[in-house]
């Protein structure tokens, strides 16, 4: 019998190596509809975009992005979900090992009457001490082990590991989203500062025009129509300033919230105007297949597919027998020193097999297969959406820079025309309507140039994010301990391998 107890667990080891269900195989880029080259012109070399904001050469932008990456509340939630996924993996891996539990106890038995000693109180009352008591000490150890003959436990661990990795990539996706939103609002704030400067500069010129028109009306050189036109134009320009200020304050407030601070936290720091960040003239987008490795949302979708595939094996394993082994060792003695004198134990191996369940187990297999089909379609859709994001950003950047070049020419021409018109109006060589038109064209060209520069910077940010910039794509992010110092975030370190998980 002792020999059998040793051989029975060993005999189950070869059986435990069998895992039903499909083995996951990552899809090739061609299977996902990924072309060899982009359909729009771009450099095919691959750049390191881990800290793409440094390419704008704006220290304030870099500071804000880094502060948001360490303090943003959405990122903190993603880190919490990552911790949960990590603990889910730990719990799944625990099923690969036996469960041990111990017990101990003490019991005191007393004979309250008879057979004991007695004594008489001064008042003549006889008290029986009830002697003859006994002690009982027990100590036990029990163990149970779910063998998982057909790999249901290993498939469960495989699914949990894939879900944990997907949570890491989801964290990276949130990180990229927050970084890009901070950068976009920073560009917007600088663009609104420039538009406010344009409006105030134009307003100063229109104040001069209104004064000149007033003098010419008083001198009888022109009718009061010129003065009314000048007053109307000035009021319309002045009316745009409060709206621009409101939009600027909203952008600054958004930056404050994104960095987990009060909305007005950065008003003083951003008050001094700075140019709109420009960034490099060229960006190498690499090849389309690079997006499968660089984009965290694509990698999260791939890990979700791997988890769904593993769940098919979990569901299929329920169709086959399940083996569990339990054992216990117990001892009982009247004193602690005698606990090892008499030891008893038992071993039980049980095999269970579902016979009839109304098709529920097979339905679960089909449901898991359907979930895998859904995950595969979602993976393909995420890949194609990533490719679309990249190409749209490339085209948007080229378009914004082309408009910037044309608006620079338009601004130069409009500025020259406005100077000539102002000089001619003062000399009485042209009417006020012509001056008004030229100065309106100048303001429009100024704002057009500002908007084109803002659009170029925003498109460049979108391109960096579309390419998966903003995180270390060489490692899977994992969560720090809960008691990590304030401001720390998920650190990019490798996840446990399958060998380590077993």
Automatic annotation (TrEMBL):
It is a lipid-anchor. Residues 1-19 form the signal peptide. InterPro entries: MdtP/NodT-like (IPR010131), OMP_efflux (IPR003423). GO terms for molecular function: efflux transmembrane transporter activity. Keywords: Lipoprotein, Membrane, Palmitate, Signal, Transmembrane, Transmembrane beta strand. GO terms for cellular component: plasma membrane. It is found in: Cell membrane. The keyword Signal applies. Residues 478-502 are annotated as: Disordered. Gene3D superfamilies: Outer membrane efflux proteins (OEP). Pfam families: OEP. Belongs to the outer membrane factor (OMF) (TC 1.B.17) family. NCBIfam families: outer_NodT. PANTHER family: OUTER MEMBRANE CATION EFFLUX PROTEIN (PTHR30203), OUTER MEMBRANE PROTEIN-RELATED (PTHR30203:SF25). This is RND transporter. The lineage of its organism: Bacteria, Pseudomonadati, Pseudomonadota, Alphaproteobacteria, Sphingomonadales.
